[in-house]
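Page 42, continued from yesterday. The earlier attempt failed because a stray header line got pasted into the input along with the sequence. Redoing it now with the clean sequence only.
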Amino acid sequence: MSSAPAEDTPGIQFSILRRGSRDPEGPFTDQDILQLLNERRVSVSDLVFYEGLGEWKPLGDVFEIQEQISHFVDDGQDTEKVANAFREVTGIVGDSENIFYIAVQEKAGLLSKTKQCVVITNKHIYLLHEKRAGYELEAHLWKSITNTLMRDEGKGLGTFSILLGGEKRVDVCHIPLKQVQRLFQLSQEMKEATD
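This time it went through. Structure tokens are written below.
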């Protein structure tokens, strides 16, 4: 495995800094890293970095999470936001709750400087709000959700809405339309499964 750039490979590109080395190698794809690990050419204690990670971290700490979130970024989601949402939600869900999809706002609202995430599991819809002192999760059980809606805002963006009882509606605006459509499809399937 050389340190030549991976060409025509979609997804996240990783750099590796081996223990005792001064020069990083890469970029590598997640498949390259799996192969390097399997061949024992890199160690879980070697450091890894990808855009959005913030700092070099041990491969063993990052790659397990990265491997789990890689299938959530199929629709162009911000990888760092997906990773944060994944960590926050997996920290509170039980063994019987599975994350099916994570959508990320393309841009924040007028009053908010941070992007929100919508996480669909088999038991809840979670809304992740980034705050100065961390994250705030808003959880809605499927049985408390009467319906979900989607609206095309134009310019490739949409709004995903959750109707709670007949009284409250929660809107998450400015999500890429492809992600809104996937949220809506999954939410309809989850509603049918829980009714």
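Notes: The domain at 75-194 is CATH 2.30.29.30 (PH-domain like).
Reminder to self: strip header lines before submitting.
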